[in-house]
């Protein structure tokens, strides 16, 4: 395909696998995340898998200037074409609310998981609007559908993401930009290793989906133009404890 796809959180986990899925179809791919070395590793594999072009742009989605740089580089490299934007970068947490001494973790989570998403979307929208039949795909979570213990701040960000993108979905429905909301259950990635807070890894990941399967389902749902994709194979909503 000749599609141009931008993926945030492309240096590991679900975002990395989304990149490989598009690479196998010969897409042109923009990879964004903070860790440059990891982006280079993913870029190399995308090329091996058949990506037509790959552009890595180290980006902290919580920094507006870096997001502006990401979109500017995409605009220049692909003449303002952007067929799909995967708003996927995210951080998690793991600790009961009352164990936190201050609320800085809660602000960081909002900065990355919520403001990071809307900042990338805001700056990419002009490109998406001038590309026919374009897509925004956002990785929310089952934590955006029901509260999960030790994930209070994380759930709040994913509920916020859900509210924002459901509203945007309606706003854009007749403007040629289709929004797909994705609610994964447990997926085997680095997210629990890098979670904020010092609580134990209390999630039982047995039976969790692989990142590759999650990515394949997401790309399929994107192509089908689905409004949402809920993956509750493991966690029954609100009943995981
Ligand atoms: O986790 P991980 P996932 N600026 O840690 C990047 C959601 N989800 O694939 O910056 C830019 O392998 C980070 O890159 P780096 C979850 O909430 C997951 O599971 O280099 N990028 C890495 O590429 C999240 O929204 C599960 O450190 C930033 C990526 O984000 C999405 O899936 C369940 C960044 C995280 O990759 C992908 O997470 C669920 C920043 N400031 C929803 N901060 C699950 N795994 O079970 C982080 O329901 N990144």
Give your account of this protein's structure:
It is a single chain. The chain has 241 residues and is an alpha/beta fold. It is 42% helix and 17% strand. The protein is built from 6 helices and 9 strands, in the order E-H-E-H-E-H-E-H-E-H-E-E-E-H-E. It has helices at 13-24, 36-49, 64-77, 104-129, 152-172, 211-224; strands spanning 4-8, 28-33, 53-58, 84-87, 134-139, 177-183, 187-188, 209-210, 228-230. The strands form 2 sheets. Strands 3-2-1-4-5-6-9 form a 7-stranded parallel beta sheet, sandwiched between helices. Helix 5 (152-172) links the parallel strand 5 and strand 6 (177-183). The longest helix is centred in the middle third of the chain and has 26 residues, at 104-129. It is globular and about 50 Å long. Bound molecules: 5-hydroxy-NICOTINAMIDE-ADENINE-DINUCLEOTIDE PHOSPHATE (NJP). 5-hydroxy-NICOTINAMIDE-ADENINE-DINUCLEOTIDE PHOSPHATE binds at residues 8-15, 33-35, 38, 59-62, 88-92, 112, 116, 139, 141-143, 184, 186-187, 189-191, 194, 211.
Which properties best describe this structure?
241 residues; Rossmann fold; seven-stranded parallel β-sheet; two-stranded parallel ribbon; 6 helices; 17% strand; disordered C terminus; binds 5-hydroxy-NICOTINAMIDE-ADENINE-DINUCLEOTIDE PHOSPHATE
Any idea what the shape is? globular
Number of H/I helices:
6
Whole-number mean pLDDT = 93
Second CATH tier, the architecture:
3-Layer(aba) Sandwich
Low-confidence stretches: 236-241
Count of strand segments = 9
The main pleated sheet reads as: 7 strands, parallel
What structural class should be given to the helix and strand makeup? alpha/beta
Please identify which CATH superfamily we are dealing with. Answer: NAD(P)-binding Rossmann-like Domain
Q: Which ligands are bound? A: 5-hydroxy-NICOTINAMIDE-ADENINE-DINUCLEOTIDE PHOSPHATE
Overall radius of gyration? 17 Å
Main sheet: strand order: 3-2-1-4-5-6-9
Element string (H = helix, E = strand):
EHEHEHEHEHEEEHE
Provide the CATH top-level class: Alpha Beta
Instruction: Tell me roughly what share of residues is in helical segments.
Output: 40-55%
Strand content: 15-25%
Total tally of structural domains: 1
């Amino acid at each position: 395909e000749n599609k141009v796809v931008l993926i945030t959180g492309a240096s590991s986990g679900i975002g990395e696998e989304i990149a490989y899925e598009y690479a196998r179809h010969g897409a042109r791919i923009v990879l964004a995340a903070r860790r440059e070395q990891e982006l280079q590793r993913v870029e190399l594999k995308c090329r091996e898998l058949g990506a037509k072009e790959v552009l890595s742009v180290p980006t902290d989605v919580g920094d507006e200037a870096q997001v502006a740089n990401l979109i500017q580089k995409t605009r220049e490299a692909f003449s303002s074409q952007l067929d799909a934007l995967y708003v996927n970068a995210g951080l998690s947490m793991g600790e009961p609310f009352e164990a936190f001494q201050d609320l800085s973790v809660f602000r960081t989570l909002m900065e990355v998981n919520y403001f990071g998403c809307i900042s990338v979307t805001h700056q990419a929208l002009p490109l998406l609007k001038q590309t026919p039949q374009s897509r925004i795909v956002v990785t929310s979570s089952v934590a955006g559908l029901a509260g999960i213990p030790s994930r209070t701040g994380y759930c709040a960000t994913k509920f916020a993401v859900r509210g924002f993108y459901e509203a945007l979905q309606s706003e854009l429905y007749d403007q040629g930009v289709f929004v797909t909301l994705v609610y994964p259950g447990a997926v085997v990635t680095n997210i629990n290793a890098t979670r904020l807070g010092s609580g134990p890894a209390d999630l039982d990941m047995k039976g969790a989906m692989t990142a590759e399967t999650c990515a394949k389902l997401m790309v399929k749902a994107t192509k089908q133009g689905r409004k949402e994709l809920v993956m509750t194979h493991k966690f029954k909503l609100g009943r995981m404890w």
